[in-house]
Specification:
GO terms for molecular function: GTPase binding. It holds the Pfam family DIL. There is one protein chain. By secondary structure, this protein is an all-alpha fold. 50% of the residues lie in helices and 0% in strands. It has seven helices and no strands. α1 packs parallel to α4 (61-71) and α2 runs antiparallel to α4 (61-71). The protein is elongated.
Length: 171
């Protein structure tokens, strides 16, 4: 059950983040607030179902950071340093794309300046990020089956002749 929810939450993360990276109309402060609220509801649900050890919440980390990026101030070099230290699960390319797509919803917000984005790129240039922008929503985590040793020893097993397993021999 834990593995199923980890996979499901990864797919939610990948699809939501990919949509954020592709749609200018949803890259705003208010979308960041809505995302963060919805993610906290998912995290609360996991706690309520006692699934916090499943790793499902950790798969949402890139989306959490993207939501926080949308909510942070984006003016000074201190803001750039805060973004760089906060967004460790996002690639440089993803951070820059979100900043480029950021669209102010009201007159109190301002567009992100080109100088600010260049400052972010300069601070993140030593990162060795993968070149891909979008997340692979078809990624599958390996299924792990717990090992439960049997009390029956292999010496005591009798293989019926009707199985035609003559090629097997006891050692």
């Amino acid at each position: 059950i834990q593995q199923v929810f980890k996979q499901l939450f990864y797919m939610i993360n990948a699809i939501a983040l990919n949509n954020l990276l592709l749609r200018k109309d949803i890259c705003s402060w208010s979308t960041g607030m809505q995302l963060r609220f919805n993610i906290s509801q998912l995290e609360e649900w996991l706690r309520g179902k006692n699934l916090q050890q499943s790793g499902a919440a950790q798969t949402l980390e890139p989306l959490i950071q993207a939501a926080q990026l949308l909510q942070l101030k984006k003016k000074t070099s201190e803001d750039a340093e805060a973004i760089c230290s906060l967004c460790t699960s996002l690639t440089t390319q993803q951070i820059v794309k979100i900043l480029n797509l950021y669209t102010p919803v009201n007159e109190f917000e301002e567009r992100v300046t080109v100088a600010f984005i260049r400052n972010i790129q300069k601070q993140l240039q030593e990162r060795n990020d993968p070149p891909q922008l979008l997340l692979d929503f078809k990624h599958m985590f390996p299924v792990l089956f717990p090992f439960n040793p049997s009390a029956i020893t292999m010496d005591s097993i009798h293989l019926p002749a009707s199985l035609n397993l003559d090629f097997l021999s006891k050692v």
